[in-house]
Amino acid sequence: MSDSPPPASVIIALSESYSRVRRQSESLCEPLVVEDYVVQTMPDVSPPKWHLAHVSWFFETFILAPHLPGYRPFNPGFNYLFNSYYQGVGTPFPRAQRGFLSRPSVAEVYSYRAHIDTHISELITNLDCHRDSLKICELILLGLNHEQQHQELLMTDIKHILGSNPLLPAYSKKIAQNVQNSMVALAWVKLPGGKVAIGHDGKGFCFDNESPRHNVLLNEFLLANRLTTNAEYLQFINDGGYENPLLWLSDGWAAVQNECWKAPLYWRRIDNTWHIFTLEGLKPVNPDEPVCHVSYFEADAYAAWAGKRLPTEAEWEHAAADEDLTQGNFLESGRFHPLPAQTGKRLMQLGGDVWEWTQSPYIAYPGYRPPEGAIGEYNGKFMCNQIVLRGGSCATPADHIRKTYRNFFYPHNRWQFMGIRLAADA
Amino acid sequence: MSDSPPPASVIIALSESYSRVRRQSESLCEPLVVEDYVVQTMPDVSPPKWHLAHVSWFFETFILAPHLPGYRPFNPGFNYLFNSYYQGVGTPFPRAQRGFLSRPSVAEVYSYRAHIDTHISELITNLDCHRDSLKICELILLGLNHEQQHQELLMTDIKHILGSNPLLPAYSKKIAQNVQNSMVALAWVKLPGGKVAIGHDGKGFCFDNESPRHNVLLNEFLLANRLTTNAEYLQFINDGGYENPLLWLSDGWAAVQNECWKAPLYWRRIDNTWHIFTLEGLKPVNPDEPVCHVSYFEADAYAAWAGKRLPTEAEWEHAAADEDLTQGNFLESGRFHPLPAQTGKRLMQLGGDVWEWTQSPYIAYPGYRPPEGAIGEYNGKFMCNQIVLRGGSCATPADHIRKTYRNFFYPHNRWQFMGIRLAADA
Amino acid sequence: MSDSPPPASVIIALSESYSRVRRQSESLCEPLVVEDYVVQTMPDVSPPKWHLAHVSWFFETFILAPHLPGYRPFNPGFNYLFNSYYQGVGTPFPRAQRGFLSRPSVAEVYSYRAHIDTHISELITNLDCHRDSLKICELILLGLNHEQQHQELLMTDIKHILGSNPLLPAYSKKIAQNVQNSMVALAWVKLPGGKVAIGHDGKGFCFDNESPRHNVLLNEFLLANRLTTNAEYLQFINDGGYENPLLWLSDGWAAVQNECWKAPLYWRRIDNTWHIFTLEGLKPVNPDEPVCHVSYFEADAYAAWAGKRLPTEAEWEHAAADEDLTQGNFLESGRFHPLPAQTGKRLMQLGGDVWEWTQSPYIAYPGYRPPEGAIGEYNGKFMCNQIVLRGGSCATPADHIRKTYRNFFYPHNRWQFMGIRLAADA
Amino acid sequence: MSDSPPPASVIIALSESYSRVRRQSESLCEPLVVEDYVVQTMPDVSPPKWHLAHVSWFFETFILAPHLPGYRPFNPGFNYLFNSYYQGVGTPFPRAQRGFLSRPSVAEVYSYRAHIDTHISELITNLDCHRDSLKICELILLGLNHEQQHQELLMTDIKHILGSNPLLPAYSKKIAQNVQNSMVALAWVKLPGGKVAIGHDGKGFCFDNESPRHNVLLNEFLLANRLTTNAEYLQFINDGGYENPLLWLSDGWAAVQNECWKAPLYWRRIDNTWHIFTLEGLKPVNPDEPVCHVSYFEADAYAAWAGKRLPTEAEWEHAAADEDLTQGNFLESGRFHPLPAQTGKRLMQLGGDVWEWTQSPYIAYPGYRPPEGAIGEYNGKFMCNQIVLRGGSCATPADHIRKTYRNFFYPHNRWQFMGIRLAADA
C-alpha cells in the first residue's frame, strides 16, 4: 500500500531546501585550493573532498539506490570509500586513511555531486507518483540535516588543516567586520526546578536521539548569563590550572600529561603574548571573546577551579525553553569565530558562537529506539563514552539548530567550536 | 575544639572490625606462593603484595601520619610505591609498572602490615582522649571499606594472574561443594514507576558517591527475575553475536575487532567444548550458571540481540528496595564463582554472584561534592567514561555491599565478576 | 685565495645538465593530478610536491644562500618544511607529517622551482668570476645527483600513492610496449677470487660513500646469470616459504608476522590468480619478469630456501667490473617496470630493472670520512641498520648509476624497485 | 654406525664441567629473594627463574629427549614456557610476557634443574655404550657454553631488576674490595696491517659463528691502550654530546630523542653529582673506571666527538692475537663491575671489565653455514641489525671467553656491561 503523497507545496519547499543546502556546502569550499581538499591532519579530521563525497553517498545509498528505479551508482568503488561507519551497508574504508586518497580528484567529486543532484531532482519531480513518497521526503530531509552537520565539520576540519600547517594560511583574510568588544559582567540567572519536560515534541524534523520527550526532575539552579571568556580562562591558566591534578578528572589529567596541554587548541604563546589561530589567520587573544576549542576535561577543570559546575543537558534545555536561539552568531554570519557577548538579554549566547559542554553523558532517552536498518546506526551506536553539547556554534547553520538538539563528542575532543557556560546549585 | 569521643561500644566494635577485615585480606592470600604476589599480568591488575601494602599505606597516610603524634613511616619510599592515584599526596609510581617491583619482599609487606596494625591499635586504644576522635573513627571506617574493596580486587587479580598462565594453576582445588544445578525459567517482574528516591539516606557508612539521596522519575518497567545464564549467552554466541556489528555500540565493535573477542574472558574452546577457567581450575561451562566476565559492550550487545535492554541504576535500586541482598553468594562462601539461580524468590541473585551492568554512566548525583583534600580523589575524579554496576559479586564481602552501592568500571573491562540482568520497558 | 674557474666547456655542460635534470623531475609529474602531489601513504613516502620542493631547497640552502651574494630565500618558512634530515641547518619538519601540508600549493612549488632555476642560472652565468667557482660546480653536480635520486623516489612514491588507493588508478595507461617474453634459463657464472679493488677511483662524480677505493679479499664464487623471476619466487610462495620460520632471519620472521606478508608488495590474489599493481594499473603476474618489491628479509629467505645466498657488495662490484651497465632498463625507457631477461650476455640485468639486494650491511669503507658541515649528513649518518643494494632499477636515471654506486635501505623496506640475484660459494 | 666413544678422561672432565657450570648458575642466584626471580622489567630482560629453567630446557630438548632412551619430560608444559626462540621445536611463549608467569615457582624450577642434572648424569655415566656418544659430548659442551652465556645475562638482568626499583636494593652490600684507583694515561698502540687470519681455528670449543677462519686485509691502525673512562665520557656529556645531532648516527639521534638519553644507563644526577647504580647499590661515579652501559649509538657518537673511531672486529681480534685475555676482571672476581685500568701492559683490559663495541655489523663469515635443525637457530638467524662486541665483561665466566668470540647486540641496547675502546687510522 502506497503513502498518500505530500502536498505540492511541501515538495517545492523540499526541492528548494535541497538546492540551498547542497549549494551551501560547495560555497563553503570556494576559498580552498585543490590541495586543501585532500589532507587529513588527524584521524578525527576528514579531507574536505571526503565530506563533499560522503554526504552525496548518503543520498545515493539511502535514497537513490533503494527508491529511484534503475538507478546505477556513479562509481561502485565509492560505496567503500565514502561509507563513514554504516556497517549495515558494508565495511567502511579505514577512517584514519582518508587522507591517503588522492583519487577521486576534487573535480570528480564535484561531478559525483552533480550526478546525485540530477537524480535527486528527478526523484523529487516524480515524487507524487511514487508509492513511498512520504518516506522519501523524510529521508531527503534527513539527508539535508546530515549534510548540514557535515558543513560544520567541513569548517572545523578546514580550520585544523590550515592551523596544523606551520605557514598558518588563512581561509580568508577578509571574513567579516568584528563587532565592537563589550565587557558584559558575569551574572547568575536563577532558574526554577520541578518536573520538567525535555526532548523533541515531534513537530518538524528532529534526530532520533532527541526523542522521546519525557519528564525529568530538576532542582532550582543558577546558570551563567554568558559564556566563559578568554580573560576568565586565562586566569585559570595563570593560576596553574594545567599543573594542578586536583582540579581534573582522572582521565582528563592523563590527557593533560600525554598531550602536553597548556592552553586551548590553537593557542600559541609568541613573545610572551597568547595568540590564537582563526580562519582569518593568527591573532592576539581577544579577552572578551568566549574561550573556544576546549575539551570537556578542560571545561570541567575550569568549573572546578571556579568553584562551579557545568549544567546538565536537561538544565540547559529547560533554561533555553523561553529563549530565542535564532539570532546568534551562526555559520551564515561568515565569521567562523565566536563573538563577545552583547548586552541586552538575560541569557546571552545560548545559540551559536560555541557549543556548550554539559555534564551529561550522551545516553538514550527513556524509551528511545533507533530506527530499523543501517540508518539506525546514525546516532544510537555512539551512546557510550561521549558527552552532550548544546546550542550550536559559529559553524552551525542557523536553521539546523534546535533547543532539543543533542550534539556529542568524546571528552578529549577539542577541534570543534566548543566552549563553557558555568552553572551552580541554587 | 575537640569532638566528643564516640562511645566505648563503638570503639570496641571498630577495633573488632579492624582486626577482622585486616585478617581477612591475609587469609585470602594464604593459598598463594610467594611468586603469585609479585606478578602484574596487565595494567589493570595489581600484584597481590601491592594490594596488601597499598591498603596499609592508606591507613598510614590518611590516619597515622596526620593523627598519631610522633608517628614515623615504616619506610619513606613506600609513599611513592604504594600511592595508587592520590595526586594530592605526591606523584604515584606508574601503575603499569607495579609488576616491576621485586622489593619490598612479601615478608617485608607483612611486616609493614603488622607495623600499621600496631599503630592503629595504639591510636584506637587512646581514641577517647584524642581531639579528632570522631573524624578518626570515620577515617578508619573508610579505610576498612577501602580494604574490603581491595579484597575483591585481590581475588579478581589473582584470578587473572593464574588464568593468564598457560599452566592454568588453581587457586585452590577444593574450594567448596557446588550447590545443585537448577533450571529457573526466565521471568519478568513488573515494577512500578513514579517519583522514586535513590541514594544513601545517611544511616551508617556509605561512600561519598552514593549521596545525596534524591528523587528521580521512573516509568513502569520489567526486570528479569534472575541473571542471564551461560546457556542463554551461548545462544548469542552461536547466533553470530560476535560477528554482527549491528548489535554493538560503535566503541564496542572496535573492542571486539581489536581484542579478537569471541566469548567472555576466561572462556576457551577445547575439543569443541567451551571451558572456563575458575579459581578451582579449568572446567566445562555450566549452562545454568550466570554468565560472568563480560564487558559492558558485551552486556549491551547481548541485550540488543535479546530485544531487551539493561536497567538504569535507578531502576535497579528501586527494584532492590524491598529485597534482602544479604543472603547471596558473597566472598565469605569461599566459592569465588557465581552460582545458578535458586528458586524461591521473586527477584533472584540481586546480591552477590556477579556485579550487574546497568546502562547508567557513572556520574555525580545532583548536589554531590567530593570531600576536601586528597581523600576527595577517592571517587569523584572517576566520574567520566565509566559505567555503574550494582549488587556485588561472589568476591564482595557480604557486609560491604549496600543497595545504594555504586561500583564502576570502564565499558571494556571484563576481569571483574561482571554479568547481565536484562530489563525492558513495561 | 680563489679557485681558478673551471673551463667554459665545463660550465656549459653543467648548465645543460642542470636544465635537463630539472626538467626531467617535472616531466615525471606530468601525468599527475594536483591531488596526487599532496598525499603521503606511509612515513617512508613523501608527497610528490615535497620532493619537487625539497630538491630545490637543497640548491637554495647549500648553494644559493652561501654563494649567491644578496640572495633572499623564496619563503623563509620553507627551510623548516623542506629540510629532510639536515640537523646542521635546523630541526626538520616531522617526516611522518609531510602529508599534512596542503600548502604551499603545487603551483607555488613550481614557482619555487622557477625561482631557484633563475638564480642558479644567474650563479652559473657569473661563475667565472666567482672566487669559489670550483666548489660551486661540485655542489651543483651534487645537487643534480641528489635530484636524480629523488626522481627515483618520486616514481616509487607515486606508485605507492596510487597502489594504496582501492580504485587502483594507473599513472599512465600507455606506458610503453613490452618487449617479448623470453625464458632465459638460470645459469651460474663462476668468478675468480683474490685481492680485488672496489670503490670509486675518483674520476668523475661519485658520492662520498663510494670511496676510498680499497682492496678486499674474495673467494671464487658463483653468480646467477640473471635476476630471480616471478615464476621462481612463486615456487617459494607455493612451497610455504612465508609460513616456515626456519627460512627467515629472526627480525625477518617478526616482520612476516607483524605485517602479514604473504607475497611481495603490490601482489594481490584475485580469483585464484596472482596480480600485481604496476604504474600501468593492475596486471596478472608475468612469470618471466624479475620479482620486484621484496624486502631484504624476503630476498634472504628466498636464497635460504633455494640453498644459495645473496652476493656481497664486493662480489657484485667485482662481477660487474667488465660489464656494461648502461644498456639496461632505466628510467628513460619510460616503462617503470622490470623486464624479463634477454639472452645474449653472460651476466644479464646488472644495470636497471631492479636494485639487487646484497648481503652487505651499509657501513663505511676503510678510511671513509664524511665531508665537513651539514652536507656531511648526506650519507654517513645512515651507516647503521641498512643493507646495500646495487645496480639501479627501472626508475633510476641511466646516467646516474655507476658500478660503485651504493644504494641502501632498511631490511624491511619493500616499496623501492628491489629484487634478487642469487650467489653461491664456488 | 656408532661413533667410537670419547676417552674416559674426556668424559670425566665433561662431567666435572657440567657440575661446576650448573652450580655456578645457582650460586649467582643465592643473594636473591624469591620475588627477584619473577620480575621482568623490560622485554629484553628475563626473570632469573626463567633463565634457570630455560638452560635446563635446552639440555632436556636437545640432549635428553632425543638421546636418553625412555626419557619423559619433567613437565610437558615447560616446552612452551621455556623455549626462547627455537621455532623448529614449537612456537615459543611470547618473550615480553615472561614476567607474567608466577608459576612454576622458584622451588619447582630448582626441582626441574635437579631432574635434568640427574638424567644428564645418567647419560654421561652410560656414554661409553651410547652410539651417539661423540655427538652427545658436543651437545653437552654446547649446553654448558649456552648456560654460561645465560650466567652473564642473569647478572645483567638482575642488575636491571634491582636498578629499576626506586628502592635501589643492592644485590650484595659486600661484593669485593675495590683495587686502588690509578690514572693510566690514554696512549695509542700502533698495529700493523696486511693479510690477517681471523676466526676460530677449530681447536677446542667455539660457537658456529666464529668460523670459518679466513683472511682479511687490514690497514695499519692505532688502538687505545685502555678503555674509555668515566672521566673522558663526562667531558663528552659536559660538552653537550647528547644535544648535538651532528655527532650521532641518524637512528642513534632518534634513540636519544625518544628515550631522553642524557647519560649512560644507571647514571643519575643527585645534588649535582653523577651517581651510578651498581650491584653494590648506588655510588658516586668513579672517574677512573671504564664507562659502562652505553649503546653502540653512544659509543659511536663519543668516538666522533673524540675525532676517532671504533675498531672493526678484525682489527680487535688481530690486536688481541698476542695478548693474554685470561687475567682480566671476569665473573669469578665477584665484583660485577669494571675496574680502572692497571698499568703494566701494552694493551690493557682486553679481556673482561666491559664488552667492547666494534664498528662491525654482525654478519656471517665467508663460507659460514648454520648447523642443520633447530640448533641451527642458535646464532645464524640473528645476523642482521646487530653489532659485534668483543672481549667479555665482568659478568663473563673467565673460561667462556675467547679471542675469536663474537658477542652481538642491537645498537640501542645498553643493559649489558658494554663500553668503549677507541681506534684510529694510522
What ranges of chain A have pLDDT less than 50 throughout 5 or more consecutive residues?
none
Q: Approximately what portion of the residues of chain A adopt beta-strand conformation?
A: 5-15%
Average the pLDDT over all residues of chain A and give the rounded result.
95
Oligomer: homotetramer
| Beta strand count of chain A | 12
The share of residues in helices of chain A is 25-40%
**How many helices of chain A does DSSP assign?**
9
Across the major sheet of chain A, the strand order is 10-9-8-11
Q: How far is the N terminus from the C terminus of chain A?
A: 56 Å
The ordered H/E elements of chain A are HHHHHEEEEHHEEEHHEEEEE
> How does the helix and strand content of chain A classify structurally?
alpha+beta
Shape of chain A: globular
Q: Identify the most extensive interface between protein chains.
A: A-B, 36 and 37 residues
**CA radius of gyration of chain A:** 22 Å
Largest sheet of chain A: 4 strands, mixed
Notes on the structure:
The structure is a homotetramer of 426-residue chains. The first copy, chain A, is α+β, with helices and mostly antiparallel strands and 426 residues long. Helices cover 31% and strands 12% of the residues of chain A. Chain A has 9 helices and 12 strands. The first copy, chain A, has helices at 8-28, 48-67, 78-81, 106-125, 133-163, 230-238, 250-259, 296-305, 313-320; strands at 188-191, 194-198, 214-218, 221-224, 267-270, 273-278, 281-284, 355-361, 387-390, 407-409, 418-419, 423-425. In chain A, strands 10-9-8-11 form a 4-stranded mixed β-sheet. Chain A is globular. The termini of chain A are far apart. The model of chain A has no long low-confidence stretch (mean pLDDT 95). Chain A binds chain B through residues 85, 87-88, 195, 214-217, 219, 245-246, 248-253, 296-297, 300, 359-361, 363-364, 366-367, 376-377, 381-385, 411, 425, and chain B through 85, 87-88, 195, 214-217, 219, 245-246, 248-253, 296-297, 300, 359-361, 363-364, 366-367, 374, 376-377, 381-385, 411, 425.
